[in-house]
Amino acid sequence: MSPTFWIENFKLLAATAGLLFAAGLYMVIVSHNLVRILIGIEMLTKGVTLLLGLAGAVTGRLALAEAFIITLIVLEVVAIAVAAGLVVGIFGHHGRARVSALDELKG
Amino acid sequence: MTTLTYALIGLLVVETLWTIQTSILRAVMGLAATSVLLAILLFQMGAPLAAVFELSVCAGLITVVFVATVSMTRPLTPTEEEACARRRAVRFHPSFLVVTLVGLALWGARYALQAAPPPAEALAGVREVLWGARRLDLVGQILVMFVGVFAVVVLFKPRAREEAGK
After folding, report:
1. Nearest residue of A to residue B124, measured between CA atoms
2. pLDDT above 90 for A100
3. B-contacting residues of A 48-107, CB under 8 Å?
4. Domain around A56
5. Domain tally for chain A?
């Protein structure tokens, strides 16, 4: 698809990326369950991925955008794997995977 | 193709809103579906390598990690599930309003977009960019992967010992 299409629809796609970001942020702020918070973080990165792809398509620097997206995906998967391990560890220690279980970290 | 793209964007928005509101396991499925839709959009933008990564890693591997995490944590009793559904209704149903307002604000915002002709380096392929200009990123990625593997091994070690002790 030609860059003209993405330039013409830039606002729509940027708003969609913003919506993904807002949804993820909302999930992170409002959720009490740690797995749900991780899903929220994933949603945030989906918004960033869409925006990177869009920036590449609009400016014609798709190769650079692709390189950034690949880097982002690698970092994302490592972060999620470690965070999931932490969630399982917290569940094993406290018997629940909720933010309220982490109040022992205070002080 | 244009209609398909608009349909994909619409589906992406619906899927996002559904993922926020539903139970955890369904939210994981919703996230995987969001990744699939995003991969198709990236493919249409002309970024096939990023699309393949998005599809295989985000829609595949991360979904497996999430499902494994959900299965390794205790399922809720019917009473807890009912209470959670009530709390979810209170907390997440306003998200329709919040997220739609943010979307509308972004839609209405005036972007100073200057569309310029593609520069010379735009003609370089992703391989040249990744192995040439962004070589340091690859080193960082390898380091992060090693740290991730090490962290997962360390996190699961005590559990394996405990289970062996039993």
Report:
1. A63
2. no
3. 49-50, 53-54, 56-67, 69-71, 73-82, 84-89, 91-92, 95-97
4. 3-105
5. 1
